[in-house]
Design goal:
This protein has about 170 residues and is α/β, with parallel strands linked by helices. Helix content is about 35%, strand content about 30%. It has a single domain, classed as P-loop containing nucleotide triphosphate hydrolases (Rossmann fold, 3-Layer(aba) Sandwich). Strands 5-6-4-3-2-7-8-1-9 form a 9-stranded mixed β-sheet, sandwiched between helices.
C-alpha cells in the first residue's frame, strides 16, 4: 500500500501553495493529479482554475458562470472538472505515480464520480497527498474514519514543517 496523507486546513492556510511546493520538490514527471488556484479579476476573487499536473489549465468555477451547480456565488462546471481531473487521477493510478489532489472541497465534492475516484485512489498502491477542506462534510468524515490515512493539520505558520514531513514520508517506502 502506498502512503496516504491528507492535509487539512482552513481557507488561507496555503494548502495549494504547499501542494505546488511539493510538486516542485518531487518533480512533475513522477506525479499525477491537479491543484486549484484562485482566479483574480482586479482585487476580487472571481473563480477557480483547475490545473492538471500534465499541463492543462481550465476555468471550472466563476461568479459569472451560468451553471446548474453552484457553491456560494460561483457557478461550477462539473462536467469540465470531471473531464480533466478524473482521467488524470485514473492514469496516475494505472502508472503508479504519486497522486496529488488539491482539493477535496465543496466544489469537487459535488461530483459523485470524484468521490468514487478518491476512494479508489485511497485503496490503490499509489502514494497520495491531498488537501481537504476543514468544514464538516459527510464524505470528509468518512475519510477521517480510515485507519490507513495520516492527517496533517496545516496552519499559517507550519507550512515548511508539514512539507518536510510529507517529503520524508514519501521517501521512506515500506
Amino acid at each position: 500500500m502506498g502512503k496516504k496523507i491528507l492535509i487539512s486546513g482552513r481557507a488561507g492556510a496555503d494548502k495549494t501553495t504547499l501542494i505546488e511546493k511539493l510538486a516542485g520538490r518531487l518533480g512533475a514527471e513522477a506525479l499525477r493529479g491537479f491543484y486549484t488556484t484562485e482566479l483574480q479579476e482586479g482585487d476580487k476573487r472571481a473563480g477557480f482554475d483547475l490545473n492538471v499536473i500534465g499541463g492543462v489549465t481550465k476555468n471550472f468555477a466563476h461568479v459569472n458562470m451560468s451553471a446548474s451547480h453552484r457553491v456560494g456565488k460561483y457557478g461550477v462546471d462539473l462536467k469540465l472538472f470531471e473531464e480533466y481531473a478524473l482521467p488524470e487521477i485514473e492514469e496516475g493510478m494505472q502508472t503508479g505515480a504519486t497522486l496529488l489532489i488539491d482539493e477535496i472541497g465543496k466544489m469537487e465534492l459535488l461530483s459523485i464520480r470524484f468521490k468514487r475516484c478518491v476512494l479508489r485512489a485511497l485503496d490503490s498502491d499509489c502514494d497520495l497527498v491531498a488537501t481537504v477542506m476543514s468544514r464538516p462534510h459527510p464524505f470528509i468524515e468518512q475519510l477521517r474514519t480510515r485507519k490507513d490515512v495520516e492527517w496533517l493539520p496545516l496552519t499559517e505558520t507550519n507550512e515548511d514543517i508539514v512539507l518536510e514531513k510529507i517529503i520524508g514520508r514519501l521517501e521512506v517506502k515500506q
